[in-house]
Specification:
- The chain is built from 5 helices and 2 strands; from the N terminus they run αββαααα.
- It is mainly alpha-helical and about 170 residues long.
- The chain has one domain.
- α4 packs antiparallel against α5.
- The protein is globular.
- The relative contact order is 0.14.
Length: about 170
């Protein structure tokens, strides 16, 4: 037990008896995720796919080979964009933490959370190397806090999904 709560009460993602997943997030965080998903979805649907806030959502095949980068963009950009839109739509659909999700839906939800995280990182020049030891009352702290919260949420969802995979044994360890 921790702080008077049973461990199961502290879990962000749990399994239901029928094998589905349930998120256990505060209503305020669910609302924030829905808001951010709608905002990012609108930006992705807009005319400017090169908007600076979308920079990390469009991976580059090469920083040195312009031709390779252009070919990759032509082949994959629309698929990546649609994947982000579908993931963000799912976040909007699951605006209540009481709605169970399949493993596939939770994976898609994870991709939506990560897209939001990456967009916030692009918009405010935040990365995993950013100093997260900030005064919460500082004006510039809010985007860093959001980035950190969404990074932690993505990590917790990833851990829950990985629990379904069997451990990979290292054959060379013998």
């Amino acid at each position: 037990m921790a702080s008077g709560y049973e461990e199961s009460q502290l879990e962000v993602v749990t399994r239901t008896s029928d094998g589905k997943y349930k998120l256990h997030l505060p209503d305020g965080l669910m609302e924030l995720l829905g808001f951010e998903a709608r905002e990012l979805s609108a930006l992705l649907s807009g005319p400017d796919s090169s908007h600076p806030n979308l920079m990390r959502l469009h991976p580059q095949a090469s920083l040195n080979d312009f031709e390779l980068a252009s070919e990759f963009k032509a082949l994959a950009d629309s698929q990546i964009l649609e994947s982000h839109k579908e993931a963000l739509k799912l976040i909007g659909k699951h605006s209540s933490s009481s709605m169970p999700m399949t493993g596939e839906e939770l994976d898609q939800y994870l991709r939506g959370v990560n897209a939001i995280r990456l967009a916030i990182g692009s918009a405010f020049d935040i990365s995993d190397e950013t100093d997260f030891d900030l005064d919460p009352d500082d004006e510039g702290a809010q985007p860093v806090i959001l980035y950190s919260v969404f990074t932690s949420l993505a990590s917790l969802i990833t851990e829950a999904l990985l629990e379904d995979f069997p451990a990979i044994e290292n054959e060379d360890a013998t």
